[in-house]
Amino acid sequence: MSGGGATADIPEERLRRQFEVNVFGPVLLTQGIAGQMAARRSGRIVFMSSVAGLTVDPFTGAYAGSEHAVEAFADALDQELAEFGVTVATINPAPSSPASTTPCSRRGRNGATTPPTGSTTTPHSPSRTSSTTRTGLRADRAGPAG
């Protein structure tokens, strides 16, 4: 859900709806499966975020705030589940024209060594990076590594 407007003027109801849809829904859904993945000692959780979770522009405060929250939850969950062999990443689509071949950036625990042209890749947990492609998303593929 995306809603624009001056941050000082966004009605409370619209602000709450923004966070209900973009943050609480995905996090609560993830809570329902994260324990099963930890018990299995493997898994990959991928959140759909947005480039707005990495930047902010005027009149995007509510949307960018909700997407920054998704990034923060993903970072925390990635660190919390690492000892159980579960990885967490986000996919960050950016606005693009129909002719674009690089519509998103991908972030994961170990980042990527060769991001697609026009895309940025940043590790979720820089202090715990790995040289293997088993963890996180690879920039040279459209989906999870594995």
Automatic annotation (TrEMBL):
Residues 93-105, 113-136 have a biased composition (Low complexity). The lineage of its organism: Bacteria, Bacillati, Actinomycetota, Actinomycetes, Kitasatosporales. Keywords: Oxidoreductase. Residues 137-146 have a biased composition (Basic and acidic residues). Belongs to the short-chain dehydrogenases/reductases (SDR) family. It comes from Wenjunlia tyrosinilytica. Residues 91-146 are annotated as: Disordered. This is Uncharacterized protein. InterPro entries: NAD(P)-bd_dom_sf, SDR_fam. One of its GO terms (molecular function) is oxidoreductase activity. PANTHER family: NADPH-DEPENDENT 1-ACYLDIHYDROXYACETONE PHOSPHATE REDUCTASE (PTHR44169:SF6).
